[in-house]
């Protein structure tokens, strides 16, 4: 063992056995397990099962870790032994050694505090890790919810700013009837807000704690009062709204709570990716694309083409979304892979869901702050495409019939004339009636243009 190590032989064996990725446990996962250890020590002190001096030493060691100390001592690879025993023991050993050291004993002596007998008292990896994975996910959730709220609000503000800009709608990437740029932005805002509510709702399932289930969920070696006291202590330590599981066996063997939450995150990710793609498309050009919006110039867009501006932030969002979708797939497949009373894939499930929430939160926040908040509209370009759109004939269909309107659309494309110019040239409608029917603003609202309400 290295002299400076606070971890012990079980951690070292795990490091030797699993030299896989070089990825260490995410800080949120470390925090979550340490919260559990601190809660257990205080609970056992309260019940008298653990001597106060020993319990206090464990709690003090846990507080050091939570304050940012000894972080280099959590060294087990993400891909490790089943269920997370190696990570659990890494935490047990670090706290035991640091607690013993604070009491004047040597590291590695495991006296008077033993990693298993005292730090892990009344616990099993099988109830610690399911509890920790939920705590970790809940802990990293607020930044995502905050970022989503910020992005939704930025789109809402843009919907007001751009409400007077009428442009061509597009379906199948073909010209469609008019829409206001503000309406597009408003729809994005509502999409994000709805996903935010759904993610928060899905996270409620994560608040159910199975700690006290020990090995298979039955609670062997845990006192009857222990589950309730543990959740009470975890509420106090974390500030999270937590509940005692009605069925600890069920929560231990099923990863359905995590999958439900990950699925809600996935649903938002799919829409966020679509929004980022839309922004890239609307900003395409500046001469050979749509160019209806202008993005903030955050950095040079090319190493060879001078003056090129690319949608760098939106592209970053795409990349993060693809990564999150892959992480969700891993969560889903690993969650199905449990057998009987335990899912041994919990380490990779935890890493993937926590990592997904963290990078998605960061990408959403940056998208908001460095792209959408500074979005500008090119009203002239929007009007340019709109007046040339053959889809404007849709407003004429109630007056002249679908077939005649379709013929006008084809003629407009063939001649290069606008729909308005063709109708005037052919004398299909007089000027007043034409102005009423082709009222572009009215075409973006419910109703039949040219007919009174």
In terms of topology, how is this protein built?
Blueprint: H1 9-17, H2 27-47, H3 52-66, H4 85-102, H5 115-119, H6 125-161, E1 166-171, E2 174-180, H7 181-203, E3 208-209, H8 226-238, E4 243-244, H9 248-253, H10 256-282, E5 293-294, H11 312-336, H12 346-372, E6 376-377, H13 379-387, H14 397-400, H15 402-415, H16 419-426, H17 431-437
Parallel strand pairs: 3-4
Antiparallel strand pairs: 1-2, 5-6
Helix pairs in contact: 2-3, 2-4, 2-6, 2-8, 3-4, 6-7, 6-12, 7-10, 10-11, 10-12, 11-12
Topology order in helix (H) and strand (E) letters: HHHHHHEEHEHEHHEHHEHHHHH
Largest sheet data: 2 strands, antiparallel
Q: Which regions contain 5 or more consecutive residues with pLDDT less than 50?
A: none
Structural class: mainly alpha
Average pLDDT, rounded to a whole number, is 96
CATH class of the largest domain: Mainly Alpha
Question: Alpha-carbon distance between the termini?
Answer: 84 Å
CA radius of gyration: 30 Å
CATH topology of the largest domain: Fumarase C, Chain A, domain 2
The fourth-level CATH homologous superfamily of the largest domain is Fumarase/aspartase (Central domain)
Helix content: 55-70%
Give me the number of helical elements: 17
Fraction in beta strands = under 5%
Which second-level CATH architecture of the largest domain applies?
Up-down Bundle
